[in-house]
Specification:
- The chain has helices at residues 17-30, 45-56, 64-88, 99-108, 114-124, 140-146, 159-175, 187-201, and strands spanning 6-11, 35-39, 92-96, 132-137, 179-182.
- The protein is an alpha/beta fold.
- It has a five-stranded parallel sheet with strand order 2-3-1-4-5, with helices on both faces.
- Helix 1 crosses helix 8 (187-201) and helix 4 (99-108) packs across helix 7.
- It is globular, with a radius of gyration of 17 Å.
Length: 212
């Protein structure tokens, strides 16, 4: 494809965004696109080290401001090392989370100033914004059932925190013109809706069949 696009999947933990991001990337590849997949935080040596601290080093104290800046540091490296080069090359980028996660988790749910997070995000992202953001929405009870594994630092926070996360995603999806996807549906149905929205959004540059 001559023109690369940047697609981000967002959502609460347990919404299935990671598996759906993989499925979307595979569909785009089958449609003839060159695709670079990544996750935020992570996908670079620095980002993976930061991710380990953020999610798994529970013995370390992380104040909200420190947590936010660690995410920004990982994202800055991700943008410069992975996302910018891919887009310049005309590749599509599919990312599991991006700046909206910071705004929702540390802002709406964590209590930090949302506009300050946006300002820091402008620096970390070099002003790069997704061409399409898909927010996978799911109720907390269903999400909890799906996460049948040990929980990381953020996942271990209480129900009140995660309800604020879900509410924050609703607010940001509306203000940022993102697309809310009902993630409580069957996995294949969610995948089909994601592909349909992607195909519709990029119909001028993406000529592929929904059944590809």
């Amino acid at each position: 494809m001559k023109s690369g696009k940047f697609v981000v999947l967002e959502g609460v933990d347990g919404s299935g965004k990671s598996s759906q991001a993989t499925a979307l990337a595979e569909w785009l590849e089958h449609a003839g696109c060159r695709v670079v997949s990544c996750h935020d935080p992570g996908s670079t040596p620095l980002g993976d080290a930061v991710r380990d601290v953020l999610l798994h080093r529970k013995e370390l104290r992380l104040d909200p401001e420190a947590e936010m800046f660690l995410y920004m540091a990982s994202r800055a490296q991700l943008v410069r090392e992975v996302i910018q080069p891919a887009l310049r090359n005309g590749d599509w980028v599919v990312s599991d989370r991006f700046l909206m996660s910071n705004i929702v988790y540390q802002g709406h749910a964590g209590g930090l100033d949302i506009e300050a997070i946006r300002e820091a995000g402008e620096i970390a992202t070099c002003g790069i914004q997704p061409d399409l953001t898909l927010v996978l929405d799911i109720d907390l009870d269903t999400a909890s059932v799906r996460m049948n594994r040990p929980l990381d630092r953020l996942e271990s926070r209480g129900e009140d925190y995660h309800q604020k996360v879900r509410n924050g995603y609703h607010i940001e999806a509306q203000s940022e013109d993102a697309v809310l996807i009902d993630a409580t549906a069957d996995t294949d149905k969610v995948r089909t809706e994601i592909i349909a929205v992607t195909q519709s959004t990029f119909s001028n540059v993406l000529n592929c069949s929904l059944n590809s």
